[in-house]
Amino acid sequence: MEVPFVRVARDRGEATRRELADADLIDDGYEIDVEGQDLYIPVADPDAVPVEFEVVCRPGEERDAQTTPADLLGFDPSYERLGRAVLLDEDDPERARTVADAVLESDLPVDTVVNKASKIKGETRVRDWDVLAGADTEVVHREYGCEFALDLAAVYFSPRLATERHRVAETVAEGERAFDMFAGVGPFVIPFAKRGAECVGVDVNEDAIAYLRENARRNDVDARVTAVHGDVREVAPDYEGWADRVVMNLPHSADEFLESAATVASDDCLLHYYDIQHEDDPFGPGERAIRDAAEPAYDVSIETERIVRSYAPHELNVCLDVRLERA
Asked: Boundaries of each SAM-dependent methyltransferase TRM5/TYW2-type domain copy (predicted)?
């Protein structure tokens, strides 16, 4: 059976394996292989592998000792992994219970299984969960060398954006001043701070800000992180002209906060603007909104237009990396 692998030189194999493991991308169902001077590491989602790695397809040797939920169920269930938790999205409670039991009986390193019980709701973007196994909804997630504690029922967090967050973090330089307008538990702020940036993270969700502070301590970057609970439109004037980099990861409504982004932007600022738009024109609405808010005070130039992922039929989650230079 052809399996996707990351091919890497053997002398870089362990560092690459750790990076892929931190991003939860290694496919534990297959063995790591060696051929000549190359190491082949099996990956579960080739589309999520960072672009700097080479992905190839080749025959894979299955691990005999690894029992998966699919082995027990006779079908391949859909789920997400977050730390030692498995997240289900099953409409049928009986099917959810059956899948949860199979997850627990399998060899997956899992303590908690939850099933989505509502859509994302409210300005804090949280959802309800049915806890099928485990004591609660608190988990610890590891991503590209960072560790994040969070409560699924109290904060918003998407493991699917790990590769995108890593892409942005890789461009951060020591000494930068970074402002995350919707910081959550810190998936942008923490890696930025680990690269030496001074960071401010703002969120309306008080629980998220508490976890952001905890995660700053967990990752030994609390001296470089300021966590602010509040509406960023009220906080922005306190940081007027401060930020070299601004993150706006609030698809569907980020355009409502662009005036605040222009307020905190320094004379030369890079803006990461996330949006969800129809596939016919995924970048146009965002660019027009940014220009309306920033011009003529700033010269606006689009540095990158990137499709992050498919969001829904004919809808795309996109990112615009935009340079704002004071006119």
From this structure: 79-326
